[in-house]
Amino acid sequence: MANYDVMVDLDFNDMYLATLTMKKVQRAVERGVEKGVEELAIRMKEKMIEFMGEYTLKDGDTLASSRLAQTINILPQATGIKIEVGGEYATFVEYGTGIVGSRDPHPMPDGWVYDPKGYGEDGWSYIKENGKVGWTAGQSSKPFVYRTWFWARRSVHNIVMKNVRQELKKVRGVR
Known about the structure:
Blueprint: H1 12-52, E1 72-77, E2 80-85, H2 90-95, H3 98-103, E3 124-127, E4 133-136, E5 138-139, H4 144-172
Antiparallel strand pairs: 1-2, 3-4
Helix pairs in contact: 1-4
């Protein structure tokens, strides 16, 4: 059996430059992901307000012009994005209530009970903000949070990858 000698030349300068380049690429990817998540959060808020604009309230205004729209907070987190919508009634607006809500339910009701007290068609009375007594049989769902989440799930990859590509171009010296 023959012996073969293999000769390998190692240029430590090239290895050092390759290591530096890999570190620059890694930092660029991390910056791109971070910027992508920040952009996603901004665009989610814009999208949520757009979706809110599609729901008309009893006074003729849209949900986008309501106090609820002013409480939107979308926060990038270490493991994703947190959606906050203030107002103790936000969940009722999102999912709907009463017999009306049960006829036009949320896309993912996951155990939501529309008429827990069984009012049915009789509905119930309540005190309005102006102090007068109002009556309702509930309200249909206005799933603006769900629709924003659904849009974000479809959009996150493209938005993040666009930002990663922009950061990688900087490493290559392309602006």
